[in-house]
Amino acid sequence: MADSSLERAKKKEVIRIERESVIPILKPRLFISLANLIKRSSDREEFLKLCKRIEYTIRAWYLLQFEDMMQLYSLFDPVSGAQKLEQQGLTSKEIDVLEQNFLTYLFEVMKKSNFKIATDDEINVALSGQYLLNLPISVNESKLDNKLLRKYFEAHPYNNLPDFHEKYIIFRRGTGLDQTTGYFILEKVDMLIARFWAFLLRTLRLEKLVARHGKKLDPKKDDEINSSSNEAHQEDVYERLRLENMPLSSGSLLSKTTIQEPTFDRIIVVYRRASSNSKPDRGIFVKHFRNIPMADMEIVLPEKKNPGLTPMDWVKFLGSAIVGLVAVVSSLQTATTDLRVIGAVLSTIVGYCVKTYFTFQQNLTAYQDMITQSMYEKQLDSGRGTLLHLCDDVIQQEVKEVVISFFILMEQGKATRQELDQGCEELIKEEFNESCNFDVDDAVHKLEKLGIVTRDPIGRYQCVGLKRASEIIGATTEEIVIKAKQGNMSS
């Protein structure tokens, strides 16, 4: 039994996703929960006051930067940007500088919001499998501009960029697991047909002639994942349950099946459409998606080609063609030279051709509608709405990092960066049952910028007292406005 269980475990398809530094806790819950851990009620009130001052101060830090980014984007908004650019009367070189400035702001905000650029390996996972969207989808690269992003990455080199980085870029953040139970009858039939087709090609040694252009996952990486037993990485490993890897039989076709796939909690895609030199299109698309299964990541690709046909469609087509051919041949064998018979045979051939053509067109239309519906359900926002969401998200993450790190120093006393990092991650796990790769360097930098921590000669950090921290930050504009409102109401 033990050997059998081990054998099944080895056959599991699992993938590891690098964890980001995002803190998955709502800010109000974080503030209240940490305050409740403080024994003295007066200190709890002072702590909540400090949290608010930290938030207002960090918001003020980013206000001008975010305003600059939004002003720049107004010139490159695909909807109204062209008109505003025309009103500015800028030269082509000046516009080039402005769009690169916008991308610099955008990439910095993405980094601060703990988004990562999706790598080739992660994209290839999507190309190597299927989940709920069982359609062959690819990008029409001729419709995408390749100058905007190429120029940016030439000036700002990144490691491990995907092959398509000059045409579009995909940011991802957060992971989860999607699970679906159903009969999946048509999908199972498609899978059986695809397996039979693959078997036939292998038998005839023709598989290389019709191989898909997508890259396959490196099997060494799967072995590395399967052999890993390090506790620190257990939560980064997700098991995939897909129809492609399940044993299918006539009995299982009519039974319910559970499939599951790891997801990216948030995905943002940035690209520009191709245009002619005589009439350049300066619009920059920024699209925001949620809860995207990795194997269905094709849904977020820009400028998708019309999807191809599934194995079931090809069976229907070949079946119709064979039936039509048999009918035509049988008619010719039994027919005389009567023109009416020959006309009937030709009409049959034309009828089958027309029927096959319209069936193909109907299927392609249905698939396009399916993709559109999936995008509608998964897309959160685009353009200005996405940027406003990102700006707020940056502030939320920055505030949470500072508050958590200050709380740990307040409760534990002096700590090195490593001790502070470990303490913050343990607090998040123990009090909120969440996992996070805490960005201690960024947190310490902001604490020092606020002036509420000190560092001794051997590199240990220590926070100032609660009241002293509030005094150092000082009364914020928001507090002054709130007091003024309260004064007007009382009078």
TrEMBL record:
<dbReference type="InterPro" id="IPR022227">
    <property type="entry name" value="DUF3754"/>
</dbReference>
<protein>
    <recommendedName>
        <fullName>Aminopeptidase</fullName>
    </recommendedName>
</protein>
<dbReference type="Pfam" id="PF12576">
    <property type="entry name" value="DUF3754"/>
</dbReference>
